[in-house]
Amino acid sequence: MTNLARPYEWGNIPLYVQVASSLRRRIELEHWKPGDKISTIPELEKEFGVARVTVRRAIELLHNEGLISRQQGRGTFVAKGIKKNRWLELEVSLSTLVKFIEDQVPKFIEAKEAPAPNLGLFEGVLDDDYVYLKSIQSKNREPFGLVSVHLSRRIYDLAPKAFREQAALSVISHLDGLSIGRAHQTLIIGTAEVETARYLKTAVHSPTAEFHCVVTDGDDVAIYVAEIIYRGDCIKLDIEFKHNLSMPRD
Amino acid sequence: MTNLARPYEWGNIPLYVQVASSLRRRIELEHWKPGDKISTIPELEKEFGVARVTVRRAIELLHNEGLISRQQGRGTFVAKGIKKNRWLELEVSLSTLVKFIEDQVPKFIEAKEAPAPNLGLFEGVLDDDYVYLKSIQSKNREPFGLVSVHLSRRIYDLAPKAFREQAALSVISHLDGLSIGRAHQTLIIGTAEVETARYLKTAVHSPTAEFHCVVTDGDDVAIYVAEIIYRGDCIKLDIEFKHNLSMPRD
DNA sequence: CTCAATTTGTTCGTATGTATG
DNA sequence: ACATACATACGAACAAATTGA
After folding, report:
1. Residue B243: inside a domain, yes or no?
2. How far is Cα B237 from Cα B89, in angstroms, rounded to an integer?
3. Whether residue B131 sits in one domain with residue B74
4. CATH code at position B23
5. Which residue among A87, A150, B6, B28 is least enclosed by CB atoms within 10 Å?
6. Closest B-chain CA to A14
């Protein structure tokens, strides 16, 4: 009657990694705050239903990450100098999104092969030809986003140099005489593949936020089709509702 | 010069699980469509830089999930009858959110201990006393959301029976003479802990979407404070931007 | 100061899983 | 399918540091 998956029964992820994740999470969510003493090893043994060695390996992982400190005879404590995750506040209006993006300096990387741009229903029609741009967004030298953009070649040719130096959305917003039809974005949650994980300097399998963003011109032709993969641990979405709670009946 | 992490270098997840994830993803994103022949084992060996047995174990995982079929001498193919993930379209306006929630039948579970409700900045002030309600949201008998609600006891006492049978937000919206101040929601991405994973019938460590939702009354007192954890693989957020792309300069 | 309880650190033996060639 | 090497997990026992009675 253990609480945890038997080894490799549930997604085949090592037990001590699972335990470490649970503990890491409690620290990140401040269930245990810096300086706090966390549960003792025997307590964790019982709680997770695993052997002592397994708990110790989990704790060792967190120790190597600098999240905790250990003292024989006293206990295990949350480290004090841990830097809080500063969230990227993603805005829900497009102009603030552009503003947010303008602060970032994209580092362009060479793209191997361009997959065909993928449009959903009601997201416009494809243009004749696209330029494929791939870049990494960073903050404090820490990469947090992997961007793959399909940019209509018509648009690209209007300012090829700018598009190779700045974020495409930002350039588009500054182009004169370009009419924007609609802008639509969807978010799904995924996990980092090997290549993605390498670019974002995160673990394979760690959660990600994947944005699919489409901007069309006045004729409903998709001029900007982007896939942006953000590290899950630096994304926070704020939604302020209008006060219309009182009349959902009609 | 392998493409993959050496065993346990990167997050300590078994190689064949990593390979399987990559392949699963290609199928989910329709890089390989149902009926398609996927890369041969020698090709995958080379691409990921792993041994033959490792590739075969990855493929075996997917086979057990019913995602692929194998034929000796022909190749490996994406299974035809795979059911697509039907997304929960989460709306960004509150009344449609309530409408969405009203379709769901919550199954209440008994809560062990109530953690103190957690308010962020600008999310109002705490009421004197709260009732703690915990429930599971399901669709087609598949659980997808784990809800923990702190409900102001003042509000709860207005319709205790309803609050024990229906979703709290829905009940609130139908209460007469209750003025709503603000409603605010934030979304972060996390991973499923042991208990959460059990309720949502998903793997420990699988990605989740965690909503923190606060509704205040006219006096800025928080009457509804909820933590909702959704399975990551059934959440999709749609954001339609207003056409205001042209003037982010000022 | 000593003793006992608590808590982390270390080690052994064994069984099974993972990965290579 | 086989041989090899290493990683994961269990249970149990013992050692060392800290704390408070």
Report:
1. no
2. 6
3. no
4. 1.10.10.10
5. B6
6. B13
> B102 and B64, same structural domain?
no
Return the residue in A189, A202, A249 with the most chain B beta carbons within 10 A, the one to mutate for interface testing. Answer: A189
Judge whether B137 is closer than 8 Å to chain A, CB to CB.
no
A64 touches strand C (CB under 7 A): no
- Structurally, how many domains does chain B consist of? 2
A99 and A133 belong to one structural domain: yes
Residue A54 and residue A106 in one domain:
no
**The length of chain B, given as a count of residues:** 250
Cβ–Cβ under 8 Å, residues A213 and A185: yes
Q: At what angle do helices B41-48 and B52-64 cross, to 10 degrees?
A: 110
Which of these ranges, A5-19, B132-146, B200-214, has the smallest mean pLDDT?
A: A5-19
Would A205 be classed as within a structural domain?
A: yes
Q: Distance (Å, rounded) from C-alpha B189 to C-alpha B209?
A: 5
The reply to whether A129 falls in a domain is yes
Q: Kindly identify which residue of chain B lies nearest to residue A17, measuring between CA atoms.
A: B12
Query: Do B105 and B149 have their domain in common?
Result: yes
My answer on whether A119 and A224 are in the same domain is yes
pLDDT computed for residue A250 by the predictor:
39
Q: Which residues pair with A34 in a beta bridge?
A: none
Residues of chain A with pLDDT under 70: 1-11, 85-86, 89-94, 242-250
Structural domain of residue A108, as residue ranges? 88-237
Q: What is the mean pLDDT of residues B156-175?
A: 91
Kindly report, residue by residue over A179-215, the tens digit of the pLDDT: 888 888 888 898 887 788 889 988 777 889 999 999 9
A6 domain-assigned: no
CA dist., res. A117 & res. A216, Å (int): 13
Cβ contact, residue pair B207, A185, below 8 Å: no
Residue B203 burial class via C-beta count within 10 angstroms: exposed 0-12, middle 13-18, buried 19 and up: middle
